[in-house]
Amino acid sequence: MTVAIIGTGKMGSGIAKLLAGKGEKVVIGARDPAKASALAAEIGGDAEGGGIEAAVKLADLVILAVWYQQFEETVRAAGDLSGKVLVDISNPITEDFKGLRIGHTTSAAEELQALAPKAKVVKAFNTIFAELLPAEAREGRDPVQVFVAADDEAAKTAVSDVVAKGGFQPVDSGPLSNARFLEPVGEINIWFGFFLGWGTSAAPAWIKG
Ligand SMILES: NC(=O)c1ccc[n+]([C@@H]2O[C@H](COP(=O)([O-])OP(=O)(O)OC[C@H]3O[C@@H](n4cnc5c(N)ncnc54)[C@H](OP(=O)(O)O)[C@@H]3O)[C@@H](O)[C@H]2O)c1
């Protein structure tokens, strides 16, 4: 399966490198295609980079690695997202990183679904700091959980498979509307990591009784 990654920032480059390193075919898309091509060249192998729409066209699974505020513009640039699995990794945080812009009655994931109604939106990776994406950063510790929420079961399975391929433990977190609960978990993780001294190897772990 080809995975498109939109965004060449901390999360986009981290996920692209991780998945390519595990043998996944990755296509990177960016508003500046040269940035995506440069990242693909750095990754090597069969990684490709270019514009956003071109990357989306080549993939069935698209990981959106941009900020919540950029969703509208990025979805517009993505072209036809019909039938695509569209992964939302975002935390819709405020400028000071200390709160969420939206919540309770909606979530970034549901807002994305409204912007791209024909895509199958899946929430994942929002509780993982970019620093934990390289496999080496997780060596010797318990499996790091990635909470996966979606309404489409096949899309949830496809994303869970990608999560597992990256060496994380996918946790079925129910329907997409549960992103309303996962995004605050992402926010408290930011508090632990940035403001309460735990550092960016912090990650939530849910324990089964
Ligand atoms: N960093 C983390 O540890 C972390 C953890 C969990 C979740 N997240 C989530 O992951 C997402 C990305 O975070 P990040 O840390 O990777 O951010 P980042 O390093 O600032 O990268 C953001 C990326 O978005 C691109 N971008 C900005 N505006 C765009 C637009 N209008 N159209 C297309 N692309 C656009 C940027 O491209 P340019 O280079 O062209 O500006 C850049 O590649 C956010 O939603 C964040 O909440 C981050």
TrEMBL record:
<dbReference type="GO" id="GO:0016491">
    <property type="term" value="F:oxidoreductase activity"/>
</dbReference>
<protein>
    <submittedName>
        <fullName>NADPH-dependent F420 reductase</fullName>
    </submittedName>
</protein>
<dbReference type="InterPro" id="IPR051267">
    <property type="entry name" value="STEAP_metalloreductase"/>
</dbReference>
<dbReference type="InterPro" id="IPR036291">
    <property type="entry name" value="NAD(P)-bd_dom_sf"/>
</dbReference>
<dbReference type="Pfam" id="PF03807">
    <property type="entry name" value="F420_oxidored"/>
</dbReference>
<feature type="domain" description="Pyrroline-5-carboxylate reductase catalytic N-terminal">
    <location>
        <begin position="2"/>
        <end position="92"/>
    </location>
</feature>
<keyword id="KW-0560">Oxidoreductase</keyword>
<dbReference type="InterPro" id="IPR028939">
    <property type="entry name" value="P5C_Rdtase_cat_N"/>
</dbReference>
